[in-house]
Model the fold of this input.
Amino acid sequence: MSHFTTIKVQIKNGELLHQVLEELGYQVECNVQVRGYRGDKTNAEYVIRQANGYDLGFRRSNENEDYELVADFWGARINQQQFVNSIGQQYARKTLMAAVQSEGFTVEEEETLADGTVRVVVGRWV
Done:
């Protein structure tokens, strides 16, 4: 019986996801299998190996273009919410910065508030 669980995440760009995972300090392997309970495996495009044998993987959802996180969370022993939130926040920031640059804006100010919220002020000469 498989113990793998999937969590939908609102991430569409695999390259940005890969960059975010590496910036957060994870070693990422591409297009390999995620290991779980009793040697169960499933495929994923981006995989974070864990020493305990329970990996974390990201793969495209069958339903849409978004990625989903797949893992045997019982064995992975991570705080799912904190993990997903940190990746989501970093991904949103990278997506925003790419859009800012492509639209000709510059970042005027950026700060992280006490609650963890990131505030970005952008501007453009017209």
